[in-house]
Amino acid sequence: MAPPATSTPPLSSMPAPSPGMAQATPSFAPTPAPAFLPETSRGLNKNKLVLGGAVAAAAAIAAFAVLGGSSTGKLVITVAGPGGKSVEGVEVLVDKEVACTESPCILEKVPAGHRVLQVRAPGYEEKAARSITIEGGKEYAEDIELSPASTGAGLKVAAEGSGLELYIDGKYIGPLPQQLDNLEPGRRTVKISGSSIYAPYEEEVSIEANKVVELEPKLQLLKGTVTIELGDNAKGADIYFVDGSNKKPISTKTFPLSVEVPADKTYRVVAERRGYDSFEKEVSFTGGSSEQRVTIELSAAEDTSSRSSRTASAPARTPSTSQTSSAPSQASSSSKGTLNINSIPVSTVILDGRPLGQTPKVGVSVSPGSHTVVFVHPEHGRKVRAVTVQAGQTATAAVRFP
To answer: Does pTM top 0.85 for this prediction?
Structure first.
């Protein structure tokens, strides 16, 4: 049986609240589901809500996965020694953690951001840490060359010469002289070249740990320079450069004069001037030096007129019969001897007080008996030799300075 209907008075007919009285607040009950909606339909709505939440969660997870994939990058590190040599025992560290023990080191997923990269290997200097910035989704390559650790091994090349250059194992090092430290021990090919006056030089050298190898190669000289300058009394002299049998006059008046010649020959510088003894000096490059200097100095010749006056003032002597008969034999060549005079290096010669000029002197005719030869060198001083010459025979007086 339906409950009786209750009539609700209109709002305008309701009495106004008196002052001081609390106003009543109406209460609202939740609206019940319509009576026509079956119970199963209400359960279906609940399932739809749950399914919708699951789909939203899956989408969020997928979005997170996508964002997570773009937050890493790829890094490839290649490590080698000098000349691309492979390195044993290499360690690659990222943010102070060992990431690889081989080269190339391929890191597929490196977190984006600033990363600190280090490389080390036994027997090599540890590289200073370097900072790299990784961006998500990008690839990076780092090539690192390690230097051998200090071993105390070295090479010193002392050869000096204009234009000479040093190469080791085909690699240009620089102009000579050179000293290289902290070389890796082993066999090395040393080459010296670059000069037009020396032949190229090549030698294999063994480099040992804790040892500096000193190399002083003997270079083959191809060309030499003779510098001629004028000394005492040489101005106005006729000067010749003698190459074997070729005596070539030097016409220039400007000195010092430099002449470049092949280094495998011996030459002579000759100077002649009226009233002076001739000058002659031999030049060679056998000592290995590419430069030779010749200073021409002339000594005044003895005055022949004074020698004649001394002869004329001597008292006349009447030869005896025996002396007259022996004169032809004294004038013959058998009554004289021959003296050869030489010195190394060239010096000025004085024979029995009479200047003869520069050595060598060959075939000097002297009277039989004892003679005194004085050799004078501007740098090494004087040397004296006494020599006895027999009639019709040849003797030699020679010295070596210093």
So the answer is: no
